[in-house]
Amino acid sequence: MSESDRIKAERDEIAKERDTLKAEMHDNRKRSAFFTQAKAAGVIDEEVAYLLASKDLTLTDDGKLMGADKFLTELKKSRPHLFTNGGKLGSGGGNTKTPRPKDDVNQRMNAFLRG
Questions:
Q1: In angstroms, how far is CA 71 from the centroid of its own chain?
Q2: Half-sphere exposure of residue 99, counting CA atoms within 13 Å on the CB side?
Q3: What would the pLDDT profile of 94-108 be if each residue is shown by its tens digit?
Q4: Mode of pairing for the β-strands spanning 84-85 and 88-89
Q5: Domain range holding 24?
Q6: Among 2, 33, 71, 104, which one is most buried in terms of CB atoms within 10 A?
Q7: CB-based contacts of 39: which residues, under 8 Å, 6+ apart?
Q8: Average pLDDT in the 72-78 region?
Q9: Helix (H, G, I), strand (E, B), or coil: what is residue 54?
Q10: Are 82 and 42 in contact (CB under 8 A)?
């Protein structure tokens, strides 16, 4: 391989790496913009919502996210349990039991060990 061919191969490899990094940066910006909007809309798990929405989202050249508002509105109608509702979970319910005090576990363990 000549010096010229080696330099061209190296240049091509660097160009591929640059393109990969650009694509990752674009995806990270899209993800970040969506997470911000989803959190403001009250989504409980932004990652799950992003996985559902990612194919319908577009990030414009000026950094605006297109498609998120429509997706979040439709998601809230079809899956209200994925959203918070004044600190309570939506129609999905949630943990309605009162948590046990920590002493209760210690007392039970001591009783078990004593026989």
A1: 15
A2: 4
A3: 555 555 555 677 777
A4: antiparallel
A5: 3-114
A6: 71
A7: 46
A8: 92
A9: helix
A10: no
Q: What's the count of helices (H) and strands (E) in the chain, helices before strands?
A: 4, 4
**3 state DSSP class of 61:** coil
Which token pair is 81? Answer: 């349990």
Residue given tokens 């674009």 in the structure block: 26
CA distance 106 to 115: 14
CA 81 to chain centre: 17
Distance CA 80, CA 112 (A): 43
C-alpha closest to that of 57 among 80, 40, 34, 32: 34
pLDDT digits (tens, 9 = 90+) for 3-21: 999 999 999 999 999 999 9
Instruction: Classify the phi-psi angles of 21: left when phi > 0, otherwise alpha if psi is within -120 to 50, otherwise beta.
Output: alpha
